[in-house]
Amino acid sequence: MTSQHRAELGAAGELAIRSLIERAPLASSLAHAFAAKGFRLALVGGPVRDAILGRLGNDLDFTTNARPEESKKILSDWAESVWDTGIEFGTVAGKRGDTTVEVTTYRSETYDANSRKPEVVYGENIEGDLSRRDFTVNSMALELTGANPEFIDPFNGLSDLAKKVLTTPGKAEDSFSDDPLRMMRAARFASQLGFEIAPDVIAAMKDMAKRIEIISAERVRDEFTKLLMSKSPRIGITILVDTGLAEIVLPEIPKLRLEIDEHHHHKDVYEHSITVLEQAIEHEDRLGGPNLLIRLASLLHDIGKPKTRALIEGGGVSFHHHEVVGARLAKARLKALRFDGNTIDDVETLIALHLRFHGYGDGEWTDSAVRRYVRDAGELLIHLHVLTRADCTTRNAKKAARLAATYDSLEARIEKLMEEEELSKIRPDLDGAQVMKLLNLKPSSDVGKALDFLLELRLENGPLGQEHATAELLKWWEERKL
């Protein structure tokens, strides 16, 4: 180790310690609890990296020579709540105040060639534990149970952190063979941190992309979600596509590179989709901040185009009903990735509706059409506003301004009707009990059909009032009987 590296380590250690004292004062008390039982404890991985970068959060990872059962005993006394769902992999977690900690026994884990679960082998020293970490910038530790905190960096992670590059402690092929999810993690860190991935790491990702198939859908989903919710998802998505990983975990995305959008001849559908995602992110303040639904819907909104591509006589292409096909494909993909039902349904709805606005033209929609737009969007109306606006990626300034102005007018009409008619609470003018009494019916499908008729009447004409609605209902019922 050179004198310069020693100096860098000392400075980094001091910075990490200061960050810990300021942002995570409970770390020292946890270290004292482990030391009192004769064990060692070190802050490790991402929190050390983030402490040096000045972005330490309240989720802290530690490593120890204590076995999991011992860690659980210590945490049970120290934390307000403890959970051991990861104890078979050597991890016990706890929470005290706003701080969540995970304590993992020194370990070395590898994957069998065809297994989705790692075989855990406990280690005897922290250096061995650090050698099995994913990247050098996560292979640094801050030992807290000695006389003084000690910064440990056996793989020059500090240097890579300064250069903003992702490399692996050992051979990248060995690291990705042990845990193939690390390939997706590389793309995620590139998006989150703005780091480059070392050429040998990229080469290994390309060579070993198919190895991701042994990873469970849930772990792939979680890693992809973190990437998508990062500051710059374009970076990570492009890495997944370029390395071939997307071909396996999200094949609909690389297929977009083969299609030309009829509205955007200057860019392929892939580039358009990424741009829509970025533009939607710019408007997330309307949704209260970073929003998974809008990011998923933006990225996937045009995935129906490859299946609906048709050549137009005389030149050009069309993608008729791609929103319907895309909604179905998105539902299937998100289901395969084990997203929850509500997320799947909402993304499907947004994709199915994302072209509806283009029928608005220059504002010639009737009030009835506006009511149906609001009714179909339901609680996703603001999401649909954001997606529709983001979907305008034309470089023609006049066209972009015209589309924005047209959508402004639609939102204004919606707000006006909202005030006049409470559009968000559209209901038939009569309820089920009134229908049954008027038509002398018991609960049945006829009652549902009557309510559907009244709702259509309400959407078409606005509020009718009970008297007018009763007359229309009785008229409809007599016509049905005839």
Topology diagram in text:
Layout: H1 3-23, H2 26-36, E1 41-44, H3 46-53, E2 59-64, H4 68-78, E3 81-83, E4 91-96, E5 99-105, E6 107-111, E7 118-122, H5 126-131, E8 141-143, E9 150-152, H6 157-163, E10 165-166, H7 172-178, H8 181-193, E11 196-197, H9 199-207, H10 217-228, H11 233-243, H12 246-249, H13 252-255, H14 269-282, H15 292-300, H16 305-308, E12 310-311, E13 317-318, H17 322-336, H18 341-353, H19 367-377, H20 381-390, H21 397-421, H22 432-439, H23 445-461, H24 466-481
Parallel strand pairs: 2-5, 10-11
Antiparallel strand pairs: 1-2, 1-8, 3-4, 4-5, 6-7, 8-9, 12-13
Helix pairs in contact: 1-3, 2-4, 8-10, 8-11, 14-15, 14-20, 15-18, 15-20, 17-18, 19-21, 23-24
The whole-number mean of residue pLDDT values reads 87
Number of continuous helical runs? 24
- CATH architectural grouping of the largest domain: Orthogonal Bundle
Radius of gyration: 29 Å
Task: Give the proportion of residues in helices.
Answer: 55-70%
Q: Give the low-pLDDT segments.
A: none
Strand order, main sheet: write it out.
3-4-5-2-1-8-9
Number of strands: 13
Give the N-terminus to C-terminus distance in angstroms. 96 Å
Question: How many domains, as an integer?
Answer: 4
